[in-house]
Amino acid sequence: MSGVEIRELEAFLVLAQELHFGRAGERLYVSQSRVSQLLRSLEHRIGAPLVERTSRRVALTPLGESFLAGLRPAYEALRATVDDARAAARGMGGVLRIGFQGTVDDYLSRAIARFGDLYPECAIDIVEIPLSDPFGPLRRQEVDCAVVLLPVAEDDLVLGPVFSRQPQTLAVSVRHPLAARESLSAEELADCRLIGIGGGAPDYWRSAQAPALTPGGLTVPAGPGVNTLQEGLSLTAANRGAMLLCRSTAEYHGRRDSLTFIPVEGLPDSELGLIRHRLRPSAQASAFAEALAEATGPSQPAA
C-alpha cells in the first residue's frame, strides 16, 4: 500500500466503469494518456495487470475484477470519512440540491423537514427532474441526490433508502372507454395505448414504467413517449393514451375534471428510492439519506 496515490485508484475505478480510456479521461478531466499513465503506475505497484487492452476493447483481468470488488467499498468509506470530517470542521453548511420525479409526497416532505431541523445552516433546493432522464441530473452534478422511480441498476449510483411502495393506477381520459371502471386487471392493459417515457432513460427503466407486455404475455400497444409527468397527463387528458402512475401521484392529481384514475390489479407495486453518486459522496446527501430513512421507517427491499 506504500506510495499508492488516490488519483491512481480513482483512474482505475472510473476506467472499470467506462472500459474506455478516452471516456475515463473526460470524466476525470485529464488526457487519455494520463489515464494510461496512472493505470500503469498502479499496476506496477500491485505487480500484475489489472486491465487487458487491445485495439478494439478494454476489459478487466480476473485480478482487476477482484481488486475492483475490494477497492470500491473501501474507496467509498474513505471518501465518506473525508467528507464527514470536512462537514464537521465547517458545520453542515452549503446547499443540498434534492432532485425528485413527479410529486413531492408526504415521505419526502417529512424528510426535508427533518433534515432542515437537524441542519438549519444548510440551504435546501428542490429540483424537479424529468421522467425521461432519471439519472442524468445526478451524473451531471446538477443535484446532490435524487428521489426516482425504481428500478435502479446503475453501477455508479448508490440506492437507498427505498420507500413509498404504492399500488399502480391507470390514468385515462374521462372519455376513454375504461373511464367508468372501478378497477382493471393487468391483462386489460392490452386494450390500452400506454404512454411511454422518451429520452435517454435506460431501456429496463422505461420498460418498468410502461411495460410492453402484460404479466400473461399479451402485447400492450405503445402510445406516444413523453419527457415529463405534465406532458403525460396532458396527452392522457387529450385521450391520446393511458399512463401508469403510482397511487399517491394519482391522488395528488385526482381533482382534474379531464382525468380519472383506475386501480390496476396484478402489476408490481411502484417504489421510490434515493440515489447518490458512488464516486462523488456528499456529507449533506448522506445526512439527508439518514433523515429520509427516519421519515420512512425501515427501508423496503428494492424490487
The helicity comes to 25-40%
What average pLDDT do the residues reach?
Answer: 88
CATH topology of the largest domain: D-Maltodextrin-Binding Protein, domain 2
Let me know the largest β-sheet: 5 strands, mixed
Give the amount of beta strand, in percent. 15-25%
Distance between the termini: 38 Å
What is the alpha-carbon Rg in Å?
A: 22 Å
Number of helices: 10
Strand order of the largest sheet: 4-3-5-13-6
Structural class: alpha/beta
Order of helices and strands: HHHEEHEHEHEEEEEHEHEHEEH
**Number of DSSP strand runs:** 13
What are the segments in which pLDDT stays under 50 over at least 5 consecutive residues? 299-303
> Which CATH-level-2 architecture of the largest domain?
3-Layer(aba) Sandwich
User: How many domains, as an integer?
Assistant: 3
By CATH, the superfamily of the largest domain comes out as Periplasmic binding protein-like II
CATH top level of the largest domain? Alpha Beta
Shape: globular
Protein name: LysR family transcriptional regulator
InterPro entries: LysR_HTH_N, LysR_subst-bd, WH-like_DNA-bd_sf, WH_DNA-bd_sf
Organism: Streptomyces racemochromogenes
Family: Belongs to the LysR transcriptional regulatory family.
